[in-house]
Amino acid sequence: MAPDNNTANSHLLVFARYPELGKVKTRLAAGIGAEAALAVYQELLHHTFTVIADVPAHKTLWLAAPSTAPAALPEGWDKYEQVYQYPGDLGQKMQAAFSHAFAAGATAALIIGTDCPGITPQLLTEAYALLATHDVVIGPAEDGGYYLLGMKELYTDLFVNKSWSTDAVLPHTLADADRLGLQVAQLPVLRDVDDADDLRAWRTSTGAGNAEDK
């Protein structure tokens, strides 16, 4: 496995939660139950870990909150820097994470979550490559948000005045980037797993059957 810090100027910021029953994938849990939703989250967490493992970047795991139970992260995550997310809305949390990376010397930083089973090492590599010729790179999500955001310096306008978790996030972010005169590269559109319909679509695409059968 490639050393985690072999490209110190490239940072990869991963937003995640401890895998605790009733604390993760609550929208999904409304459709399939809390225990099944936890199992899906653990699957997505493992997928994310596998995807980022050999990407040559300094990885920082930004955790939503301290664990209230012995629900430790899966083996391997402890080799990465771990920080608790700052207070505020999602935009404030992401802005703080990017600020942290750039203060640490990053010249290119990507942020992702743990909800997108379609993300691959190749996509992350492509995102870093696109930052060589663009100011911002974004991975659009089918729901109108994004599964990845990357930049070479902090553009605070991209994180304020957004209706987070709505289909307005992506168009408003792109509008802000255009207003600032930024060169933006877009990755392929992917689907996050947020609810039972998303899970069913994922299982169908991989030939794993319906969500109810998992």
Tell me what you see in this structure.
Helix 1 crosses helix 2. The protein contains six helices and seven strands, in the order βααββαβαββαβα. The longest helix has 19 residues. The N terminus and C terminus are likely disordered. With 214 residues, the chain is an alpha/beta fold. It has one domain: Alpha-Beta Complex (Spore Coat Polysaccharide Biosynthesis Protein SpsA, Chain A), CATH 3.90.550.10. A hairpin with a 5-residue loop joins strand 5 and strand 6.
Descriptive key words:
single chain, 33% helix, alpha/beta, 214 residues, 7 strands, 7-stranded mixed sheet, disordered C terminus, Spore Coat Polysaccharide Biosynthesis Protein SpsA, Chain A
Number of strands: 7
Mean pLDDT comes to 91
Helix content: 25-40%
State the order of secondary-structure elements, H for helix, E for strand: EHHEEHEHEEHEH
Give the structural class.
alpha/beta
In DSSP terms (H or I, runs of 4 or more residues), the helix count works out at 6
Task: Summarize the main sheet.
Answer: 7 strands, mixed
Tell me the radius of gyration.
17 Å
User: Which residues sit in consecutive blocks of at least 5 with pLDDT less than 50?
Assistant: 1-6, 210-214
**In the CATH hierarchy, what is the superfamily?**
Spore Coat Polysaccharide Biosynthesis Protein SpsA, Chain A
| Beta-strand residue percentage | 15-25%
The structural domain count equals: 1
Cα-to-Cα separation, first versus last residue: 32 Å
What quaternary form is this?
Answer: single chain
Instruction: Quickly give the CATH architecture.
Output: Alpha-Beta Complex
- What is the general shape? globular
- Strand arrangement within the widest β-sheet reads 3-2-1-4-6-5-7
The CATH topology corresponds to Spore Coat Polysaccharide Biosynthesis Protein SpsA, Chain A
Query: What is the name of the CATH class?
Result: Alpha Beta
